[in-house]
Every structure is written in C-alpha cells, then in structure tokens.
Amino acid sequence: MSWWSFERRWLAVIWQTLLPSGTPGGLALGARDVPMDRFLDELLACAPRRVTLGARLCVWLLTFCPLFVIGRPRLFPALAEEERLAVLAKLGQSDVYLVRELPTLFKMLGALGFAGLPAVQAEMGLAVRDSSAPDWAGEPKP
Amino acid sequence: MSGVIVELADVRDQARVEDAADVVIIGTGAAGATAARVLTEAGLDVVMFEEGAHVRQEQLRSDMWSSFKHVWRDLGFQVASGRAFTPVLQGRCVGGTTTINGAIIHRMPEKIWARWRDEFGLGSALPYPELERIWDVLDRELFVGPAPEGVLGKNNSLMRTATERLGIAGNLIRRNVNGCEGSAHCNQGCPTGRRQSMNVSYVPRSVAAGARVYATCPARSLITRRGRAAGVVGQFRDPLTGARGPELVVHARRAVLLAASAIQTPLFLAKNRIGVGAGVLGKRLQAHPGTAVVGVFDAPVEMYRGATQGYESVHYWDERMKFETVAMPPELAMARLPGLGPELMRELAQYAHLAVWGVQVRAEAHGSVRAGLFGGTHIEYDMTDADIRVLKLGVRRLTEMMFAAGARQVLPGVHGLPHAISSVDELSPMFDAPDDPRLFHTIAAHLFGTALMGGSAFSSVVGPRFETHDLPGLFVIDSSVFPTNMGVNPQHSICALAWLAAERLV
C-alpha cells in the first residue's frame, strides 16, 4: 500500500517534531538526519494492513486537529515547531485514552526506525553490536 | 538417521509435498520441541510444522525492527483489545517464544499445583514428583542455573541492592543459558546462541535424531480416519509477504500433537470444529500482564551490558505480583519515555543512566481468543479492577525499590502523574484514580487456559491424558491446557507437561 506524497510529508513533519535535530543536552541526530522515509517504505511493505491503515488514519487526525486542540486554524505541518509540540503535549495529556495514545503511536513507530540505527544508538551511548545499518536504511535500490 | 529443516525456498517448485511419521507435532516452541525431543529419542519418527521461519544465527541483528520482522508474531503488533490496548508478546519462528523470552526458568509453584489438584482434579494426571523428575532433566539439558555474577550488569545488581536495603527477598534469576556473554539481547533473539531456546536445543537435537521440521508452513487442517486424528495438512507460506507455496500433507501413524500456543491452538481447534461443544474453547485466556518503571541514576547503569533479565523478587508473590529486571532495548525505551521533542531527545541522551524493572501480575482476568472477522486473530483481554489495584501497588513498590537503589528520579509511566518524580509520595494521585488499565502502558506475556484440561467433555477440551475429548489421537500439549496462570515464568512448566504427555505416548 503506498501513501500519497503529501501524507508522507505530513508524517515526516510529525517525526521531525517528536525527534528534532541538534537538541542541546540531547541527541544531535534527529529524524531529519536519518532515512525515515525509507523506514516508512519498509513499514508499509511489511507491517500488517491494520497497522498501516491505523497509522494513516492517525496521520490525518493529527494533521487536522490543531483547530480543536489549540484553536489554530492550520494544518499540523503548517504550525511553528513550538505549536506543534504544544499540540502533541496536549493530546498526550488528554483524558480520552485513544486521543492520548496518538503521540505514543507515532513515537513507537518512529522509534523502531530511528532508535534502531547504529549511529543513533552510538549517540545514546550503547556499545553498538551491528556496525552496519539495517537493510531498510541502506542505499536505495536502483 | 538425521532429519532436516525444510522451508518454502526448498520446495517452491513442487506442486505438493507429502510425508508420514509416527507423530506429527504442530509448533516448535517450548511444548512442541520438548515433545519431539522425548519422542525421537524413544525411537519414534516425528514431523513438526512451524508457521514461522528458521532464523539462522547470522540473520539476527541487534535492532528490534529486524527482530520483529523475522522472529516475532505479527511483527510485534499483536494486541489484545479491552478498555486499553495490550501488546501480546509471542515469537513466530522455529523455537517459538523461547527465542525471544528472557530465559527465565521457574518450576511451577506447589501452591499452584495444589490448586490444580484441588479445584480442577488434575493431581493424579500431573503428579508433582513426576514433574520434579522432568524438571531435573530439563535443568541439566538446558543448562539452567543462576545468572552468573560476571555478566550480571548494573541493571540487575541495582535491584539486588534495593532488595537488600529494603529487607525483601530477591534472587539471581535461574536461566537456561550456557555461557551467557551478557549482551542484553535476549528479546531480539540471542546473537551468540548461548541461550538454550528451543531453536538451539531441542529442535536441532530432534532433527539430529531424525525429525523433519517444515518451517514457513502453517498447519491448516486435520486429516481424520475412522474417527481418529490421522494427519495434518498445511501450506507453505512466506511469513512476510504471504506468498503461497505448495501444500504439505503429513500422515500420522499414531498421534497428532497440538503445541501452537494458547492463542493459535484454540484457533486451529475451532477451525477444525474440535472442542467447541463445551463452550470453553478460546475462553478463559489468562496471562501475566505487567508494566515497567524507569529509574534515572546519576552513575551509568548501561543496561545494555549484562543479562537481559538477571534479578527478581518473588517476595510479594502471595499478593499476586513478581518483580524482575529487564534491559529494555533503545527502541522500546524511546516509546516508553514520557518526553516529546527536545525533552525526549534529552531523555534518550540519558539512556545509559536508565534502569528498567517490571512488575508482572498474576491476574484474575479472563480473556478470549477467536478468529478475526477479516482474517488474523482477535484477542480480548481486560484486567479486572482488583488486578489494577495489584498493578498500582506493584508500581509503588518498584518505585520504592528504585529510590532505595539510589535513583535520582523515577519515570512511573502512569497517566495523570508527573513525567518524573523524586519521591514515592508523588504517586498518591494514582491511588485516588479509578482502577482502570488505561492509566498504564501494559504488556501481556505468558498465555494460558484456552483449551482447558479436565475430566469432563462438558467443561473442558482435553482430558487428563492431554487427548481431546472430541477426537482420539489428537493431543493438546501446550499452555492452552493450563487451568490457571502461575505467577512465574512458565517455560519450564510448559516443557514438563509436554514431556509428560510425550512419555505417555511412547
């Protein structure tokens, strides 16, 4: 199942908001610095259909929710970074279970790609066992 | 005569594969592999079906996604629905869940066995001295012993410090590992092959004694002849793409053993209309749900060095809780950490300073398993309010232990509480909140009870000799037959019951 290019961009912004680059006192690498788009391809190719459908639905929900969450009539990717974080934080504190699981879902999916990369693990201080990146993060096939 | 492990790639060009054996076993996990070990060494000819792939040592990587893809069921996305979504952890490969568990070995507590004897009438079917005899053999053959001090690592030794300071019982975990290198990679599939999971112990041992293992080949239906189970039909299938291969037909001269786990076994039985009459098939699913508490320490903990799970406390077992360490891989830690954006990136930079310990609840809850409307599996599981109260108390005690061990902060992971707390008192609002599983992020492991053993066909699926009431020659030998959960990790008990069942066939 392939996603529209705008849906992929929306998800990229979500991941870049959750995992920003160059955080002082934090990791230097962020979602922008690693091939998360290729991880999305991997996810779409392998994950159960209900997972990818659910993720797609959640991307749409998050994209269109800022008006209802922080009163800003903009799509999520069009917000400033602080506003995007405010949206995610507010969702994460919701009393409605399914709503507060939204940021967790994106964190979990992003983590499987981002935190599995040897470069990221090295930054986290791990004694990295695999020196090479997973297959999905290698060079794109011609 | 040596056997063989056959996969889809080996038979792709064939229209149909046919075989015959004395005993056909469905599943290569703790139950199936143990039964194969007993039967092959008694001189019987054995064929095994396995839905997942045969993953070689060199294919294992340290990242969770690669592991999810090749070794875990449903790529780690299997969940139970209830008030909350609960991930249900299972392996799907040669060796089953033993390839991804923490290598924790416990014998069935005598109190649990006594309950099975008194409430379920299974005392004479499962004599405790017989089980102890088998556990002694399993201990020797699977190199069971306490986690060695040399590979304990700080995540484990900190829990020991906590138990000593608080005056509660704790112990090195007994594990089935031969020469553990302490790579903390149990959940990804042991990269050094030291853990004696079934894929490196009883499966190859059975193959060496002549067993044929058909991997990437889910069992589809039973063959019956003159009112007896007489074989199994499967179809080779790529576990990732679903691409189909040839049909496999295996005729069983003596018996078919079902050892596909407490999720897949009832589904297979229901699909073949066996055991449905009593109304308990797929019901009474029990588990050990649990959650993790994260401690932040000033000094490095480096939980990625040492045994994945090397220390535990069963001090409060009578209160239905057990504590154990768990070296959480970075991917799962990232999903568990509370921060977002820059806060999350700072938490990740602190990964080496985190300790993770879990509480496992001997839950009262009963769930169910059935085929999903659109394929797949539908699992329902909801902890009871009493279970949630146990979980709350467990989180509180783990938090006390973290602080006793010297944690600067604890990340309790409970909705409604601060992300990080500096004293146990800050947990108080949790006890004022409703007893609701949605307060926590829980997982469920150790699954039981979906094809009950019992004396009557009106209230159980299999009889005391593991044979289904409905179909002679078909035996269920996995944890589906357990009448209750146990409050400890069940691999050794599953192996022992399967061993007993296999011995009775010889």
Number of strands of chain A: 0
Count up the helices of chain B.
Answer: 13
Q: Based on DSSP secondary structure assignment, what is the total number of beta strands of chain B?
A: 21
Give a short account of the largest sheet of chain A: none
Question: Which stretches of chain A are poorly predicted, pLDDT < 50 over at least 5 residues?
Answer: none
Count of separate DSSP helical elements of chain A? 7
User: Which of globular, elongated, flat, extended, rod-shaped describes the shape of chain A?
Assistant: globular
Distance between the termini of chain A: 20 Å
What is the subunit organization of this protein?
Answer: heterodimer
Mean pLDDT of chain A: 94
Q: How far do the termini of chain B sit from each other?
A: 19 Å
Structural class of chain B: alpha/beta
The residue ranges of chain B in which pLDDT falls below 50 over 5 or more consecutive positions are none
Give the topology string of chain A: H per helix, E per strand. HHHHHHH
The portion of residues forming beta strands of chain A comes to under 5%
Structural class by SSE content of chain A = mainly alpha
What radius of gyration of chain A results from the CA coordinates? 16 Å
